[in-house]
Amino acid sequence: MEKNKFLTSVVVVILVLPYADATFSGTKVKKHFVLVHTVGHGAWSWYKIVALMRSSGYNVTAIDLGASGINPKQALEIPHFSDYLSPLMEFMASFPTNKKVARVGHSLGGLAISKAMEIFPEKISVAVFVTALMPGPTLNAATLYTQVPIFHNPNLSHEIICYTFSAVIGQLDNRVAYDNGLTNPPTTLILGLKYLATNIYQLSSNQDLALATTLVRPIYLYSVKDVSMEIVLSRKRYGSVRKVFIVAADDNLLKKEIQKRMIEKNPPDEVEVIQGSDHMTMMSTPLQLFTTLLNIANKYN
Hints:
- By secondary structure, the chain is an alpha/beta fold.
- The protein has helices at residues 2-16, 47-55, 81-94, 109-119, 141-147, 193-200, 206-215, 224-230, 256-265, 281-284, 286-299, and strands at 32-36, 59-63, 101-106, 124-130, 175-177, 188-190, 219-220, 243-248, 270-274.
- The strands form 2 sheets. Strands 2-1-3-4-8-9 form a 6-stranded parallel sheet, with helices on both faces.
- The termini are far apart.
């Protein structure tokens, strides 16, 4: 963990500096953004957006979910999806009731912000899904997973959710661990360099790819049942929060047709498209994402 902290600090100092002067003119409004990463990643994945927001006078909190970033827990210590989400839920519970945040979820982080929308709708001004899973009252987690190619191990009767919406286990240099023995389902997944470079960071810089290969952590493989039971959404609470979906035009992981399908079946209040973005929109097109998030927050203040 200490190694991760040190590397994160060094990388942020070196890589954030070019973005620190990218301020915008006009009155600085103290809006508060809460950023939620995808699995395997951490708060560090938002470093460019955090730098841009802070240097422009905004409040921003990037959360490390369970066993992610510098969160002290290990993957095997969070065997339930609720364990993975708990840092976000604890943050929202402690947030003042008289204030609201703009909540931003990336990729699988869309499930996390959806849970927050259901539990704390009065504390969220707008929820932004950045090329993210976007379940809803009529599009629950289980249904969503059946509409996209979720990994299903033909040798096991246990369906599991892996990192993406395609069968990432066994692709390229990804690795799985069988901590409960080879006769039981795999427990964790580690994304390999080739997979990251081909499917997730293909338009991001070599420096950002190197950062990811240093800091990505093992992903616990949750069952579809566990996730679908944890993410139960209602029109009254989840549906009361305004939501915006951001399409990453060149996403190799969450393909445009899958993004379009979710938008059609669970319509957001608005859809934005960022051209030239791979799956890591905050890495490959940070300025475009930054300005888009500001526009959204101002509109749904």
